[in-house]
Target: ABC transporter ATP-binding protein
Amino acid sequence: MLTISNLHAAYGKVEVLHGISLDVPKGQVVTLIGSNGAGKTTTMRAISGMIRPKEGTVSLNGKDVTGLDSHRIARAGLAHSPEGRRVFATMSVTDNLLLGAFPRFTRSRPRGDIRADLERALELFPRLKERQTQLAGTLSGGEQQMLAMARAVMLNPEVILLDEPSMGLAPILVDEVFRIIERLKARGVTMLLVEQFAAAALNVADYGYVLENGRIAVHGPAEKLKNDPAVQAAYLGGGQAH
Model:
């Protein structure tokens, strides 16, 4: 579904990713964990076209999308829910969601039943259903995070990139975000998840990769990584159990 091979990425002359490779199979949740500064967000940005890789390939559904503009990668079926949410603050919740479906309105993605998908998204995110007409900028941080995730779902994508969906949220909202990820997984949505709460991410994921200093240090089935003493010592301490 999504295959990254020997990916190198840099900001100016500073190389952040040193040849990483990972696979996100159809219908699975794959998580990328690692400490701050390891290169997790850079990986997401390189996949979705926000920065151009220096080297390597990004393949979506067998199509090479390496280095394409973000809007072309979105049309190919990749949705990115970015770190920091980035909602359209002066637009309503509903209009934010419909913007997520924009490539479907223009027929550059299969159109399907957009209204029915909007209803489904609001059922999946009940907090948003209560606030459909509210301006996105007036939502709480947790509600904005849910809006960013729901907006990604509205593309009806092949793969969703979720970058730090729990960042800055109160514990009760972190739990809700992970419940939503589990519901999306149950619906067969393919996801690549970058998450600071490594234990919670491994609980919901099928497979995991540990990124250290721009390189994949270890990878394997999520259950195996959860029980790996080195991974536990480095990433699963400090009250991150979920």
